[in-house]
Design a protein that fits this description.
Elements lengths: L1 E10 L2 E7 L1 H6 L5 E5 L7 E9 L4 E7 L3 H8 L5 E2 L1 E6 L10 E6 L3 H14 L3 E8 L8 H5 L4 E6 L6 H14 L8 E5 L2 H11 L6 E4 L15 E4 L2 E4 H4 L2 E3 L3 E2 L1 H9 L20
Parallel strand pairs: 8-9, 8-11, 9-10, 11-12
Antiparallel strand pairs: 1-2, 1-6, 2-5, 3-4, 3-7, 4-5, 12-15, 13-14, 13-16
Length: 281
């Protein structure tokens, strides 16, 4: 059993949980995830790591209430335990000294991007972070991102504006200035629709763009097939071969997004961390 050491609400329906898991903490790398099972009757659910303390043996992750399991998770208190906490899983994010790095984050990615940006800064990169949130009430994680970002561009949706429109305007402005301040790497942890648009915006500029396809995953083991995708014409699974992929090598975004919608309905719409009228996150 794995004890819950801390549990807090960061924004409406957004929570950070800290679990004692020494084996996971000892081996965790930026961009990896864990699989959690609450009890013997629970389902497997994957969550991207948002932080860890190797010495204390503690692991953090942030989750958003979207269905039965995450609502049960939200009801747990400090001192409670979860039956299984397996990880770290997945391939770590690609870290290197690239130069100017732009991060695009929303939803779960706001917290999950922090370890990636920490490592990027340790490698000497200049980091600009585009932070999307539907409104100020649901803005969280900005202070953590500021620790490892040279600049943060908050994107708070005015009057219910489409998410992709406001996010992409910010990215287009940066790319338009690339002759004077070239962008060497873009990395995105956001909804599938945002990541798809980001990948198309950066393609003409030949800027290497990495996307984290965690939103595709259901059980996180490759058994369900829900996170299947095509990369350069080859079948891949987000949980086994990712979750980070070169966005310009990913084929068939429409198929991935359509499949993702089959696992969501009106009962699990996610409090604004999505495009209007869309069940992606």
């Amino acid at each position: 059993m794995f004890s819950i050491i801390a549990h807090e609400e960061l924004a409406p329906r957004v929570h950070r949980m800290r679990v004692r898991a020494p084996v996971v903490a000892a081996k965790a790398k930026p961009g990896q995830f864990i699989i959690l099972i609450i009890d013997e009757k629970g389902e497997r659910v994957p969550f991207t790591l948002s932080g860890w303390d190797e010495d204390a043996g503690l692991v953090d992750f942030v989750y958003i209430e979207v269905g039965k399991t995450t609502r049960r998770l939200a009801a747990l208190k400090v001192g409670d335990e979860v039956a299984h906490f397996v990880g770290p899983l997945g391939r770590p994010a690609e870290i290197g000294r690239f130069g100017n790095v732009v991060a695009v984050v929303s939803g779960y990615g706001i917290a999950a991007m922090v370890p990636v940006l920490r490592s990027m800064k340790e490698q000497g990169n200049h980091v600009t972070t585009i932070l999307q949130t539907p409104d100020r009430e649901r803005l969280f994680g900005e202070a953590d991102l500021q620790l490892f970002s040279d600049r943060i561009i908050p994107v708070i949706e005015p009057n219910g504006e489409e998410v992709t429109g406001s996010v992409t305007r910010s990215l287009r402005r940066l790319l338009a200035n690339s002759a004077r301040e070239p962008i060497h790497r873009v990395v995105a942890m956001a909804s599938l629709c945002i990541m798809r648009v980001v990948s198309e915006i950066t393609r003409p500029f030949a800027v290497k763009t990495m996307v984290h396809l965690t939103p595709l995953m259901v059980d996180g083991t490759g058994m369900c097939g829900a996170c299947r995708l095509s990369v350069n014409g080859n079948n891949r699974f987000a949980c086994v071969h990712g979750p980070e992929f070169d966005a310009h090598a990913v084929d068939g975004w429409e198929v991935m997004m359509a499949r993702r919608c089959t696992y969501a309905d009106e009962s699990v719409l996610q409090q604004g961390f999505q495009c209007r009228g869309c069940s992606q996150w």
